[in-house]
Amino acid sequence: MFKDITIGQYVEGNSFIHKMDARVKILLSLFYIIILFLISSPVAYAVFTAFTLFLVYLSKVPPKFILRGLKPMMYILVFTAVLNLFMTQGSTVLWVCPFWSTLKITKEGLTTAVLMILRLVYLVIGTSVLTLTTSPLMLTDGIEKILKPFEIIKVPSHEIAMMMTIAIRFIPTLSEETEKIMKAQMARGADFESGNVLKRAKAMIPLLVPLFISAFRRADDLAVAMDSRCYHGGKNRTRMKQMKMTVRDLWATLFMVGFAAAVIFIQKLM
Amino acid sequence: MIKVSDLTYVYQQGMPYEKTALDSLSFEIPDGDFTAIIGHTGSGKSTLIQHLNALVRPTSGKIEIDGVDITAPNADLRTVRKNVGLVFQYPEHQLFEETVYKDIAFGPTNMGLSESEIRNRVYEAAGFVGLPLELLEKSPFELSGGQKRRVAIAGVLSMQPKVLILDEPTAGLDPKGRDEILDQLVRLHAENEKMTIIFVSHSMEDVARIAKDILVMNKGRLAMQGSVAEVFAHSSELREMGLNVPQITELTHRLIADGVDIRPDVYTVKFAAELYAELLKEAENV
Amino acid sequence: MIDIEKLSFSYDDEETHEKKFVIKELDLYIDKGSFVAVLGHNGSGKSTLAKHLNGILLPSGGKVYIAGMDTADEKNTFSIRSTAGMVFQNPDNQIVAAVVEDEVAFAPENLGVPPEEIRRRVDECLEIVNMSEFAKSSPSRLSGGQKQRVAIAGVLAMEPECIILDEPTAMLDPKGRREVMRTIKSLNKSRGMTVVLITHYMDEAAMADRIVVMEKGSVIIDDVPKKVFSEVEKIKEIGLDVPQVTELLFRLRSMGIDMPEDIISVEECEKVILDRLKGLKND
Question: Which residue from A255, B152, C74, C279 puts its CA 20 to 30 A from B211's CA?
């Protein structure tokens, strides 16, 4: 069930984007998302699409991987589209339900639906490009560094990063475990698939209880193992992999700013 | 009887990680047999046993249990899983109920049995694995490792399967815990002549001690099948597959290679001691 | 290297409020560079002993000194843990990072070692456990034996003088067990590392220079493997195994055939029986 989630999966590579500094990548990804939510005109979207395709090309990540990340989003996409399609009020009515006239599709609704789908798709693609080209360690390190200044207002930057690292590390382990427990209970006649919502929720108990117990046991073991390797939080800790910003990051930033200016200009103009 | 014909399973078919986990396996296991499945990690043992109670569907091929094709699309999975009980590796990790009693009753309850029938079965299953009855009202999480494992095995036995399959039932136990589980399996087999017991093991000593027959898996294929004596006679082939024979069998085969006249089918220490005592005394008398 | 004086570890039983001893007045001295196996069944106190050796647990009575440092003294904690590194049973539950080389770097990073030095140690330690080619891999893709070797490298990166392994092979298949045991043996033989191996596998204990058998929180046998395994009855009584060949010769002795007591390997046993058969024929 976790197999389709591409976030946290890293594809090794040597592309321009792979080589960028994680901090710059994270900040530029945020910037990308902000631009995405500022634009709405078709021409701006066309430019944005071209830019996104260019990013995917630059990352040299097989598009298959990126598309796989969209698969688990399918239901959300369809749901959002349907909701916007029928719920948006507008002046130009395109279609009215012959049985129930409140149900209608307007031109505005159609535009909003398409816009929302594109936004969500680009949101996933943008973050996928970030996570697929940045090793989990670099990603969490980057977040730690970015959050560092906020320590003044008591943001535990190191702890947040460590929690993310461990979460990423344990996703495959726990998903394997889930599958195993599920099969073991199915062998004892458990039924996870039929019945109403209440029955199904109840059927999850034989899966969830062992899973939680196992997760706690693992957490306990891990804490001891970390202790015995002298872990004591972020204080006086060094890192093997140092982050360095290079000219590459400067170019990427300038390019991104230029692109943002262009897109927003187009948006204003059209 | 279990009849497997031309069973093939391809893992993640059509994906970049595609792998043939089982490659046209065919074999039969008669009723009441006590079979060990051996093979190194990745040889397909676990995939095979998960096919035997329809937790995994084959890519091609057929499995019949007592003449019923369990791989048919319309097969009744409930009946299949009732007839073939599967105990996973480290089964104590699947315990979840408040009391040992309720955990053992989980399978029979899912089968929709009556309250009194469930009660009988729980007591019987607990008896089979040698659980003291006063433990039944305790929480399974208060028990020792060996006891937890016995509760988990009882949780499958309470479904009264015709075939009991165990994946490495002694993994992670110390010698004492291991001996308890092995002894209980032997007793279970002696008391239920019709029950077929199949277990996966990495320990050749355990296999030699309790199994009647052995099925050897190698790279997704069936490499050997036969009685314990027949299979352990092929010590060099087994070693090529990364498997061992019991130390005592190895000693005997080495001595045979050295020219000592002794029968090759030696795999328990007790039997070996009698044999070697005779051999040494005979030599003394010459 | 390790000096344990009258170590006791107890807890209060919740129901009876009595003191329960897991370890009682245990004395043990382990020399630098030696390979000691601590043998015992589950509940004999062997894992509790291991956890005292790097200050994860502190004694309720007595003292534990690691390279002269008292484990009960809080200011020694990090020096003790980096002097006596510890590897645990479950390979999945002790790996922190999602990439092998980052995992090995974890301990030196905690110790504040400079980046270039960490890099050097990581490369060297992965080389020692023969896992260099997996430096960039994700631990979840490795076999149990490989994960355990990564865990060993993760401890070696602290450059400890002593390594304590708490049932490192209990969850591995025979191949993984062989890999890990080979690694442990070479650490001791070619690098002079002090090794304390907690196990319930007799064949593994037989590889050590010295075996300490624990039962009910005390040491009941402390000797070289050959001598330990010659006490077949005593070992079987506490629920442990001896190698099959040792048991074979024990049984032959009890049948009135004179056989040596200190045989633990197939090769030795083969030789003993062959010699006996030849000797008898030549007489």
Answer: B152
Task: Tell whether C143 and C172 lie within a shared domain.
Answer: yes
Q: Which of C198, C225, C252 is the last residue of a domain?
A: C225
Question: Within this chain, do residues C120 and C260 fall inside the same structural domain, yes or no?
Answer: no
Q: Are residues C150 and C256 in the same domain?
A: no
> Residue A39: what pLDDT?
87
> What does A143-159 look like in DSSP terms, one character per residue?
HHHHHGGGGGGT--HHH
Distance from CA of A122 to the nearest CA of C (A): 27
Q: How far is B189 from chain A (nearest CA, A)?
A: 21
Instruction: Please check whether residue C268 touches B, CB under 8 A.
Output: no
- Written as six digits, the tokens of A142 are 């980057």
Same domain, C186 and C158: yes
Smallest CA-to-CA distance from C198 within C187, C213, C218, C220 is with: C213
**pLDDT above 70 for A4:** no
Neighbouring chains of C at 3+ CB pairs under 8 Å are A, B
Q: Chain B: residue nearest A203 by CA?
A: B110
Which pLDDT band holds residue A2 (cuts at 50, 70, 90)?
A: very low
The pTM for the full model equals 0.86
Q: Does residue C56 sit at the B interface (CB-CB below 8 Å)?
A: no
- My answer on whether C72 and C201 are in the same domain is yes
Q: What is the mean pLDDT of residues C197-223?
A: 91
Residue A102: the pLDDT is 73
CA neighbor of B180 nearest in space, from B111, B130, B255, B245: B130
* Contact residues on chain C for B177, CB-CB shorter than 8 A: 41-42
Q: Domain segments of chain A: what residues? A: 1-134+242-270, 156-237
Residue B88 is given by DSSP the state P
Which residues in chain B have their CB less than 8 angstroms from residue C277's CB?
A: 260, 279-280, 283
Domain of residue C252, residue span = 243-283
**Are B92 and B150 spatial neighbours (Cβ–Cβ below 8 Å)?**
no
Q: Report if residue C2 sits inside a domain.
A: no
In A, which residues are within 8 Å of C135 by CB distance?
A: none
pLDDT digits (tens, 9 = 90+) for B175-231: 888 998 999 999 999 998 889 999 999 989 999 999 999 999 999 999 999 999 899
Name chain B's partners: 3 or more CB pairs within 8 A: A, C
Question: Under CATH, what is the fold of the domain B2-233?
Answer: Rossmann fold (3.40.50)
Q: Say yes or no: C74 and C213 in one domain.
A: yes
CB-based contact (8 Å) between C215 and chain B?
no
- State the CATH number of the domain containing residue C129: 3.40.50.300
A248-to-A16, A18, A132, A252, C15 alpha-carbon distances in Å: 8, 11, 19, 6, 67
Tell me if C266 and B242 make a contact (CB, 8 A cut-off).
no
Mean pLDDT of C171-199: 92
In angstroms, rounded to a whole number, what is the distance separating the alpha carbons of residues B78 and B98? Answer: 25
